[in-house]
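[audit] Reproducing an earlier prediction to check determinism. Same input, same settings, fresh worker. If the tokens differ from the archived copy the diff job will pick it up downstream; this log only records the rerun itself.
[audit] input (55 residues):
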Amino acid sequence: MLLARFTRLLDTLSHYQRRHCSRQRLLTLNDHQLKDIGLTRADVQRETSKSFWKT
């Protein structure tokens, strides 16, 4: 039971880390790349201003 809780915690932390990294990568995209994926600078600003635990 303790091992399962620890594993779940690690999975959650890993998920948060991936989310944070993805949001940071959005900041590196230029306007053309953002347009290709259907995002605007305003979309990126909204997304990257969120806390890592928020979807």
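[audit] rerun output stored. Observation attached for the diff report: The mean pLDDT is 97.
[audit] end
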